[in-house]
Protein backbone atom coordinates (compact mmCIF):
# COMPACT_ATOMS: atom_id res chain seq x y z
CA UNK A 1 0.00 0.00 0.00
CA UNK A 2 1.24 3.48 -0.88
CA UNK A 3 0.22 6.41 1.31
CA UNK A 4 0.98 10.02 0.39
CA UNK A 5 2.02 11.90 3.53
CA UNK A 6 0.87 15.40 4.51
CA UNK A 7 4.42 16.75 4.16
CA UNK A 8 4.11 16.44 0.38
CA UNK A 9 4.30 19.90 -1.17
CA UNK A 10 5.92 21.63 -4.11
CA UNK A 11 8.74 19.53 -5.54
CA UNK A 12 8.77 17.18 -2.53
CA UNK A 13 6.93 13.88 -2.48
CA UNK A 14 6.64 12.14 0.89
CA UNK A 15 5.25 8.60 0.90
CA UNK A 16 4.92 5.65 3.24
CA UNK A 17 4.75 2.14 1.85
CA UNK A 18 3.57 -0.85 3.84
CA UNK A 19 2.14 -4.31 3.43
CA UNK A 20 2.13 -5.41 -0.20
CA UNK A 21 3.14 -3.08 -3.04
CA UNK A 22 1.18 -3.63 -6.23
CA UNK A 23 1.56 -2.44 -9.81
CA UNK A 24 -1.08 0.20 -9.05
CA UNK A 25 0.98 1.52 -6.12
CA UNK A 26 4.06 1.87 -8.32
CA UNK A 27 2.00 3.46 -11.10
CA UNK A 28 0.71 6.09 -8.66
CA UNK A 29 4.21 6.71 -7.28
CA UNK A 30 5.65 7.21 -10.78
CA UNK A 31 2.78 9.54 -11.73
CA UNK A 32 3.31 11.67 -8.62
CA UNK A 33 7.09 11.89 -8.96
CA UNK A 34 6.91 12.47 -12.74
CA UNK A 35 4.47 15.36 -12.16
CA UNK A 36 6.92 17.04 -9.79
CA UNK A 37 9.81 16.57 -12.20
CA UNK A 38 7.76 18.09 -15.02
CA UNK A 39 6.58 21.07 -12.95
CA UNK A 40 9.78 21.85 -11.04
CA UNK A 41 12.56 20.28 -13.13
CA UNK A 42 13.46 17.94 -10.27
CA UNK A 43 11.86 16.24 -7.28
CA UNK A 44 12.85 15.56 -3.69
CA UNK A 45 11.69 12.28 -2.18
CA UNK A 46 11.02 10.99 1.33
CA UNK A 47 10.30 7.25 1.06
CA UNK A 48 9.36 5.45 4.29
CA UNK A 49 8.99 1.65 4.46
CA UNK A 50 7.01 0.22 7.40
CA UNK A 51 6.04 -3.44 7.74
CA UNK A 52 6.68 -3.93 4.04
CA UNK A 53 5.97 -7.59 3.36
CA UNK A 54 5.85 -8.03 -0.40
CA UNK A 55 6.77 -6.19 -3.56
CA UNK A 56 5.60 -7.62 -6.90
CA UNK A 57 8.84 -8.43 -8.77
CA UNK A 58 7.61 -7.12 -12.14
CA UNK A 59 6.46 -3.86 -10.58
CA UNK A 60 9.77 -3.46 -8.73
CA UNK A 61 11.73 -4.04 -11.95
CA UNK A 62 9.64 -1.50 -13.85
CA UNK A 63 10.12 1.02 -11.05
CA UNK A 64 13.88 0.35 -11.04
CA UNK A 65 14.05 1.11 -14.76
CA UNK A 66 12.13 4.34 -14.15
CA UNK A 67 14.74 5.31 -11.54
CA UNK A 68 17.61 4.57 -13.93
CA UNK A 69 16.05 6.72 -16.67
CA UNK A 70 14.96 9.61 -14.40
CA UNK A 71 17.50 9.37 -11.58
CA UNK A 72 19.26 12.61 -12.53
CA UNK A 73 15.99 14.50 -12.08
CA UNK A 74 15.84 13.67 -8.36
CA UNK A 75 17.07 16.09 -5.73
CA UNK A 76 17.59 14.87 -2.16
CA UNK A 77 16.25 11.35 -1.57
CA UNK A 78 15.81 9.80 1.88
CA UNK A 79 14.81 6.18 2.28
CA UNK A 80 13.65 5.24 5.76
CA UNK A 81 13.29 1.61 6.73
CA UNK A 82 13.55 -1.12 9.27
CA UNK A 83 15.30 -3.99 7.49
CA UNK A 84 18.82 -4.65 6.30
CA UNK A 85 17.65 -5.37 2.73
CA UNK A 86 16.07 -1.91 2.58
CA UNK A 87 19.41 -0.29 3.41
CA UNK A 88 21.07 -2.42 0.70
CA UNK A 89 18.39 -1.33 -1.78
CA UNK A 90 19.11 2.33 -0.96
CA UNK A 91 22.84 1.78 -1.56
CA UNK A 92 22.12 -0.07 -4.80
CA UNK A 93 20.04 2.76 -6.32
CA UNK A 94 22.10 5.63 -4.89
CA UNK A 95 24.49 5.91 -7.88
CA UNK A 96 21.49 6.44 -10.19
CA UNK A 97 20.31 9.53 -8.30
CA UNK A 98 21.84 12.94 -8.93
CA UNK A 99 22.45 13.55 -5.22
CA UNK A 100 22.50 9.91 -4.14
CA UNK A 101 20.25 8.37 -1.50
CA UNK A 102 20.56 8.78 2.25
CA UNK A 103 19.31 5.81 4.25
CA UNK A 104 17.84 6.25 7.75
CA UNK A 105 16.51 3.73 10.25
CA UNK A 106 12.84 4.06 11.13
CA UNK A 107 13.59 5.70 14.49
CA UNK A 108 15.43 8.48 12.56
CA UNK A 109 12.41 9.42 10.43
CA UNK A 110 12.27 13.03 11.71
CA UNK A 111 15.93 13.57 10.86
CA UNK A 112 15.35 12.08 7.39
CA UNK A 113 12.36 14.37 6.77
CA UNK A 114 14.40 17.43 7.83
CA UNK A 115 17.22 16.41 5.51
CA UNK A 116 14.89 16.12 2.51
CA UNK A 117 13.07 19.35 3.34
CA UNK A 118 16.04 21.51 4.33
CA UNK A 119 19.21 19.65 3.47
CA UNK A 120 20.21 19.35 7.14
Features:
120 residues; alpha/beta; Transcription Regulator spoIIAA; five-stranded mixed β-sheet; 4 helices; 5 strands; 43% helix; SpoIIAA-like; SpoIIAA-like_sf
What does this structure look like?
With 120 residues, the protein is an alpha/beta fold. The chain has a single domain (2-118), classed as 2-Layer Sandwich (Transcription Regulator spoIIAA), CATH 3.30.750. The protein has helices spanning 23-40, 57-70, 84-93, 109-118, and strands at 2-4, 12-21, 43-55, 74-81, 102-105. The protein has a five-stranded mixed beta sheet with strand order 1-2-3-4-5, with helices on both faces. The longest helix has 18 residues, at 23-40.
Topology:
Layout: E1 2-4, E2 12-21, H1 23-40, E3 43-55, H2 57-70, E4 74-81, H3 84-93, E5 102-105, H4 109-118
Parallel strand pairs: 2-3, 3-4, 4-5
Antiparallel strand pairs: 1-2
Helix pairs in contact: 1-2
Describe the largest sheet: 5 strands, mixed
What proportion of the residues is helical, as a percent range?
Answer: 40-55%
Order of strands, main sheet, comes to 1-2-3-4-5
Total domain units: 1
Q: Would you identify the CATH architecture?
A: 2-Layer Sandwich
Radius of gyration: 13 Å
| Distance from first to last alpha carbon | 29 Å
pLDDT average, as an integer?
A: 88
How many beta strands in the DSSP annotation? Answer: 5
* Protein structure class: alpha/beta
The low-confidence parts are none
Q: So how many helices?
A: 4
What is the CATH superfamily classification? STAS domain
CATH class: Alpha Beta
Q: What is the fold named in CATH at topology level?
A: Transcription Regulator spoIIAA
